[in-house]
Amino acid sequence: MDRGAVYPYFLTPSCPWEGVFLYSQRKGVSKLPNLLTMNNLENDKIMNLLKRAEQFEKGEKASLEGAVVNLFFEPSTRTKMSFEMAEHRLGLSVLPFETAFSSILKGETLYDTVKTMEAIGVKAVIIRHEEEEYYQQLAGCKVAVINGGDGSGQHPTQSLLDLYTIHQEFGRIDGIHVTIVGDIAHSRVAKSNAAALKQLGAKVSFVCPEEWSGDYDTTDDLDALIGETDVVMMLRVQHERHAVSALFSKERYHIKFGLTEARERKMKKDAIIMHPAPINRGVEIADSLVECQRSRIFKQMENGVFVRMAVLEYAMKGRE
Q1: Least reliable range by pLDDT among 1-5, 31-35, 146-150
Q2: pLDDT number for residue 127
Q3: How many independent structural domains does the chain possess?
Q4: Which residue numbers delimit the Aspartate/ornithine carbamoyltransferase Asp/Orn-binding domain (predicted)?
Q5: Do 114 and 143 touch, CB atoms closer than 8 A?
Q6: 134/161 same-domain check
């Protein structure tokens, strides 16, 4: 494959982020490089991040200096551990942080927590928080801020690893048909991906119960789309944000909106299955399909390390 055709934007080894920094346009947030949202992240910047992730996957080494902290105020397995792996591979010092043993329980604000990290010499913080746009609170903080998920708002590194996985599979994003299925209104993954995919030229369809449509144009007929989509992206039913039983039983949801074995057989020959995980097996997707030939679910997790290495390098080197 001609990588020059696949990745039209190039990085220079001596200064891979020259001219491609994302500076936050959000009011009050430091104008130094951060990654807070996929909104207004230009195509060339996205493609440079994907290219850098590919270089890391191929074995290219990079070394960063300094300490980072992962501030996770919501449960996480994949995002938190993926960031930690990326940080270790880049040679960073990872300071432990546990919400249950922090001064947050004494009433400390997020701003004061981040300013404390900055004061002791931390160079970057990765934050997952239940409040949408929590980063609006961080006016005056100069430490690099990487959004690991804000409530039902955005999840930019998940979106980037999804884009990388799609690009890796098809050699392009433009013209690819992606169908996102599930809790669209409450999903930061759906919101992040919807904006980025459309901006990069993909066709995006949404399938969900009407009550979960939010501001999106959706359908409740997955069967009408299953045979014409290139990527079926299933979303987790977020039991912690609402009760699925108010609309459907788990069994009924699987029949109506889940990726069943029967639906998988109707997919295009080269179509793939994606899911940000964690997975509710037998609800969003049949247990037998989680690791089937079409599935890229665990590949997404693998790719997340390389993408987050690229994001950390971009955010931290931009401050040098």
Answers
A1: 1-5
A2: 97
A3: 2
A4: 174-314
A5: yes
A6: no
Query: How many Cβ atoms are within 10 Å of 296's Cβ, its own excluded?
Result: 20
Q: Say which residue, 59 or 239, is predicted with more confidence.
A: 59
Q: Evaluate whether residue 144 is within a structural domain.
A: yes
Q: CA 50 → CA 44, 196, 273, distances in Å?
A: 10, 13, 20
- Clarify whether residues 165 and 292 are in a common domain: yes
Cross-strand bridge partners of residue 93 = 67
Q: Which residues are annotated as a binding site?
A: 78-79, 106, 128, 155, 158, 188, 236, 277-278
- Angle, helix 156-170 to helix 297-317, in steps of 10 degrees: 120
Q: Which residue has the higher pLDDT, 10 or 286?
A: 286
Over residues 198-223, mean pLDDT: 94
Tell me which residue range forms the domain holding 236: 157-297
- The DSSP call for residue 23 is B
pTM: 0.89
Q: How far apart are CA 121 and CA 123, in angstroms?
A: 6
Give the pLDDT score at 242.
54
Annotated binding site for carbamoyl phosphate: 78-79, 128, 155, 158, 277-278
Q: E strands of the chain, at which residues?
A: 67-72, 93-95, 122-129, 144-150, 177-181, 203-207, 231-234, 272-274
Peptide bond into 278 cis (omega under 30): yes
